[in-house]
């Protein structure tokens, strides 16, 4: 999130979309895909975070009412990994697209949720299949909803559900 957007937003009535997911796309480590905050215990698993981007725009006098915040309703899978913060090789199978789980297909059975309150992110890790899926648990979604209500954006959009 950089460039001329803050300047442009001052001269237009339109909104700005901020995608608060797919934050792990360029990572070589199994990491959170939709964390709102930076992790203090494992910064490598949160290479980017939503709060830093939003705060930057607000510091440039962009009104929070101009933001339409995108949040995911799907899980992103990392394959052949030893867990969060470790290298991965490929993605899990996913029910319709490799590496993607619709929210309705989560949580994966027999695997315990892991929630990081500092970064506001959650995931499941299956040590048998060596697959990690980053997605929002109910706990993460509630905390994000509270943060969003306090921010007072222009709107919210949920992305990623195919079926």
From TrEMBL:
Q: Where is the GH18 domain?
A: 1-163
Enzyme superclass (EC): hydrolase
PANTHER family in the record, alphabetically? CHITINASE, CHITINASE 12-RELATED
Q: In its UniProt entry, what is this protein called?
A: chitinase
Q: What GO terms are given for molecular function?
A: chitin binding; endochitinase activity
Q: Where are its TM segments located? A: none
Q: Does the keyword Transcription apply?
A: no
Identify the GO cellular component terms for this protein. Answer: extracellular region
Cleavable signal peptide: none
SUPFAM superfamilies annotated for this entry? (Trans)glycosidases, Chitinase insertion domain
Assigned EC number:
3.2.1.14
**Which Pfam family is one of those matched by this entry?**
Glyco_hydro_18
Q: Which GO terms describe its biological process?
A: chitin catabolic process; polysaccharide catabolic process
Q: Which UniProt keywords apply?
A: Carbohydrate metabolism, Chitin degradation, Glycosidase, Hydrolase, Polysaccharide degradation
UniProt record similarity statement: Belongs to the glycosyl hydrolase 18 family. Chitinase class V subfamily.
Q: Which reaction does it catalyse?
A: Random endo-hydrolysis of N-acetyl-beta-D-glucosaminide (1->4)-beta-linkages in chitin and chitodextrins
